[in-house]
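Contributing: when you submit paired examples, paste them exactly as shown. First protein:
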Amino acid sequence: MCRLYGFLATDATRLECSLVSAQNALIVQSDRDGRGVRNADGWGIAHWVGEKKEVIKSTMPAFADKQFIEIASSIWSEAAIAHVRAATVGRVAEQNTHPFTFGTWAFAHNGTVDEFEHAATRLDIGPFGPPAGQTDSEMVFLWLLNRMGDYGLDPYQTATSLEPVVELLADAVLDLVDISVLSGASRPPKLNFLISDGRHMAASRWGNTLYWTHRRGVRDCAVCGVSHCPEADDTYRSVVIASEPLTDEHWRELPEGSVLGIEPGAHTLTRDLLKATV
């Protein structure tokens, strides 16, 4: 069912400990997560430094892939999305590996849209298709790209503010719940999404666990004892989002049925989706 990681900071930061060395780093969760599940069907990392985005993917299990360790240990970035996959829809293949990207945007999903063959017929992906792979996740991303114009967003450009990104994701979750019902799904969809343009990030929790922590000021890493951003000062801020806590730091659990948004300066806002359905 996959595991997610998201990061947004005021300054480029070394991500090695979160991805490789921490007590419950993403590489650990690829072998066995908190549910006892192995997420061994590929991995991917999208990261940004300024306007430049780089994406690396592999169909290897992260825990068994030297390339994951080498790449994750070398990344210094202001923003990142990483994902380890447990395949539910679509075979193990690079085109089915998250994050999915377009322009400056990247997207990853932890969950499944049940009865997706029927639900997919209700998703208008406009000029952004056809999908390269077979996953429900990629189809949802293309659908989101096609809906961006309704929210004042441009699939080819970074957003100018956080609010429309949060609204895009929040409305998509609620609409997908309705689409799943109309498609005859016997179970509600699991829609933990993570989307970013490198300057803004939004994450939804719907059906799976999701946690986040807010780091303020420069301090030595609790894992390795070294600063991950030695040139920053006390104005440094970062937010980390993960399916499970990665470290022994204080992590907050994002409430079920909500969206968390992060913008430059690591300011956050949340939206309660369950209240919207009352």
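Second protein:
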Amino acid sequence: MTTHTQSAPRQAVIREVGLRDGLQSIATILPIFAKREWIQAAYAAGQREIEVGSFVPAKLLPQLADTAELVDFAKSLPGLFVSVLVPNLRGAENAIASGADLMLIPLSASHAHSLANLRKTPDDVVAEVAKIRAARDAAGSRTLIEGGVGTAFGCTIQGHVNPDEVLRLMQALLDAGADRVSLADTVGYADPAMVRGLFERATAIAGDHFWCGHFHDTRGLGLANVYAALETGVTRFDACLAGIGGCPHAPGASGNVATEDLAYLLGSMGFETGIDIGRLLALRERVAGWLTDETLHGTLWRAGLPKTFPAPVADAAFRLRANHEH
């Protein structure tokens, strides 16, 4: 968790998860050259945290079969913090061997979703995290462990998820050895009041070990929920370029919060993200060209940045073109 005062510059971080959370949810298998170009362009646009893939069997997610190669490429970019998702100890061992900076272990607070998605109970996942921590320490690795509590606001299978259970599992992850914890609205059930209430309680428990918020725009409340989280002092968020992704157990889901829309929200509110939105929108056009058969989301790309936006000079060409086209 990052806190800020009026005298300090307000900073926020967007972790790009499109290469994992986004691509695993669509049919198109993007070739590795395109993924490398995506990472390079995102880096050039100022993004410094990218989740590049997941260490899962290729037969289950062929879209992510090249994760090890992508970690190796991403680690060659100075200052880039490279994350991967791992579902179990075997995946964690691969992540450790790859030299990734952080591995995210997903846990569903919904017992029904956990069994459907991971074939484990939430407490089984906590026990797996303890094994992963032991393996990480035994290897002398510096890879951080993030425990991500999903379906934190409800579940399409189970329905209601008790906030007390969410917090119990979050504490259990920390007790099991997770270095960081995060909360995710996996199926888009949250509203700003729910986010404010749960995030206030979560950050009071986890303190600086609370890493980020992960919101989906399933029902159009993604950015509103980000704003509610900001009010609690959380300033790191996951997002997918072009709003791709989403949970397969959330029918009709429109995907994750769009990176470009989130960067605009934060920048407009005066938060420093280090992101050149013009370059980010140019990257979105390239990704759209690679994913011609997929449905993309987001709104900023349609109208471009307003003339009043305090953007760097690099954004000027895009603004002029967007104003001309629209």
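If you have annotations for the second protein, write them as plain sentences, like these:
The mean pLDDT is 91.
Residues 122-138 form the longest helix (17 residues).
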